[in-house]
Design goal:
The protein has 15 helices and no strands. By secondary structure, the chain is mostly helical. It folds into two domains: 2-123, Death Domain, Fas (Orthogonal Bundle); 131-233. Helix 12 (198-208) runs antiparallel to helix 13 (212-224). Residues 27-109 form the Pyrin domain. This is PPUP9740. It comes from Poeciliopsis prolifica. It holds the Pfam family PYRIN.
Length: 251
């Protein structure tokens, strides 16, 4: 009856939202990988050219006070917050200014489009697969924590408040608080924010909350679904393998 139709519409809407968040997470991961390939001097120039390009195109500007001391992970978050999908096209222009056309080739942009729309589903099979993997991660988290109480969800949010010093720009804690977020909204925003390691971040939060029952259940579920275990970010792997680069990230 009508309740079945309502449930179907809800499922479709949630699936669309999971897909959108997954695409954003993969794009953020790709941007981080590109920024990781820049030398420190190039990274400083990238920030300067980024602000200049935002000004020229009358786009929302990231204040220099936020840009100046930001690391690569923080910069990706700031670019997404200020420019959304446009940050792909912005990155392309800045990389051209830096004479790094080799990195431009990594961006899944439609050459015929000047709007920089998300086009990975049409152009990059590898990224398409990563989006599907991220969708699996989100669905696994939602299924695993389906029985969490409202208090559990609030505890997760409150535990995130410990990260305030590490996230001075648009803290995820304040966003969740303002939204009075439920489980779905919390998981989706966590994945979108911590796109390189959403499962690790959730385990970390559960550990801080002293909830070994939930942490153990998540670990077991992760082991069962190998696709989740395969979600390893290229830039994060680089950092783990190269101690000299660890200072560039908050991991």
């Amino acid at each position: 009856g009508s309740s079945t139709a309502k449930k179907k519409r809800f499922d479709d809407r949630l699936s669309a939202e999971i897909h959108r968040v997954s695409a954003v997470a993969v794009m953020k991961d790709l941007l981080l990988e590109i920024l990781t390939d820049l030398k420190d001097v190039e990274f400083c120039k990238f920030k300067w050219f980024l602000q200049l390009t935002q000004f020229q195109q009358v786009l929302p500007q990231i204040p220099w006070s936020n840009l100046q001391f930001s690391n690569r992970t923080e910069l990706v978050s700031m670019m997404w917050s200020s420019c959304g999908d446009r940050c792909l096209a912005l990155t392309q222009e800045v990389l051209m200014d830096l004479d790094r056309s080799d990195l431009v080739d990594k961006l899944p942009l439609d050459a015929s489009s000047s709007k920089g729309k998300l086009s990975l589903m049409d152009f990059w099979p590898e990224l398409k697969q990563k989006v599907k993997q991220m969708e699996s991660v989100i669905k696994m988290l939602l299924e695993e924590f389906d029985d969490l109480t409202l208090q559990d969800v609030k505890d997760i949010r409150n535990t995130l408040s410990w990260d305030l010093d590490d996230c001075p720009y648009l803290s995820i804690y304040w966003r969740l608080l303002a939204m009075n977020a439920d489980l779905q909204e919390t998981v989706l925003l966590l994945v979108q924010t911590f796109s390189q390691r959403p499962v690790d971040k959730m385990q970390e939060l559960l550990s801080r909350m002293r909830r070994p029952d939930l942490e153990f259940a998540l670990i077991k579920s992760t082991e069962k679904k190998s696709v989740v275990g395969k979600w390893k970010s290229a830039p994060i792997q680089k950092v783990r393998n190269n101690p000299d680069q660890r200072s560039k990230f908050i991991i």
